[in-house]
Specification:
seven-stranded mixed β-sheet, 272 residues, 7 strands, 44% helix, 10 helices
Length: 272
């Protein structure tokens, strides 16, 4: 928290110098006020982290921080983008055409897709319905290094899209070895040496060697499952998303990845 606070304060100050809380350009110079609602920068940062971690309803959040519900909504949509800017150094690539910029030549990485449940949309129900999860979801494709750093997090897509379809959009310009699960079976990408578990033949068991190889592969691939679990420590990423604001579903996923990368990199720096 103390490490993140100065970066967040810089972004908040820059924003308030130009814009009001309503997002309109200021007509006169900003002068700080002794406001009862989140008076300090530290309280504002704690507010947004508390919201992401616990995913409360806005009524509950407003009661906890002793403010009107409309002000609570306003602070959420001001502070979340500012936190995203404060963590931009730890952001994963999100453009399929630029994946190669984040991955070294001949590097071994892991790939998987994570799904999040959303409220059923009124108009595009079929687009968000996931046959795998049997509910309405959105999904993101992740590429993670062997030490657990998230290198790529795709734009948030509708749950109906198959995992392999997302992976087919990746454009690589260098040789990469990628460990994945059977959701990517049949994927054929140039420059990508795809390592998948053995698929069980219809009506026949896997051999002892194949089972052993699958077990060894799963021991490596479990790292990306742990990464996804640590990102989903934020309840707003794990639980059903109730916010319908445009691009907010993607913003909270980006924040989850950025906060995870921030914590990982700083812990590695501390150990070294």
């Amino acid at each position: 928290f103390d490490t993140l606070l100065p970066y967040f304060e810089e972004e908040l100050s820059a924003y308030l110098e130009i814009y009001t809380l309503n997002g309109k350009k200021r007509q006169r110079k900003y002068t700080p006020k002794a406001d009862k609602q989140l008076p300090s920068v530290a309280e504002k940062l704690f507010f947004v982290l508390y919201y992401l971690k616990n995913n409360p309803t806005q009524e509950s959040l407003a009661f906890t921080f002793d403010m009107p519900q409309d002000m609570c909504n306003k602070w959420i949509h001001v502070l979340c983008p500012l936190l995203n800017k404060a963590l931009k150094t730890y952001q994963a690539e999100e453009h399929y055409q630029k994946v190669s910029d984040k991955i070294a030549e001949n590097e071994t990485v892991m790939m998987d897709v994570t799904e999040r449940e959303v409220q059923r949309d009124k108009y595009e129900q079929n687009e968000f319905y996931s046959g795998k999860k049997k509910t309405h979801t959105v999904k993101n494709l992740l590429i993670v290094s062997m030490i657990g750093l998230v290198l790529f997090c795709s734009r948030t897509e509708q749950g109906r899209i198959h995992d392999k379809v997302l992976a087919e959009r990746i454009e690589l310009r260098k040789s990469v070895t990628c460990i994945a699960d059977l959701g990517f079976y049949g994927l054929n990408k140039a420059y990508m040496n795809l390592i998948l578990p053995h698929k069980k033949p219809k009506g026949k068991p896997l051999s002892e060697n194949q089972l052993s190889e699958n077990q060894l592969l799963n021991r490596k691939r479990v790292t990306i499952e742990h990464v996804i679990g640590k990102i989903k420590v934020l309840r707003i990423v794990k639980d059903k998303i109730r916010n319908y604001k445009k691009d907010f579903k993607h913003l909270v996923m980006k924040l989850g990845v950025q906060l995870y990368n921030f914590k990982l990199i700083n812990s590695l720096s501390f150990c070294s």
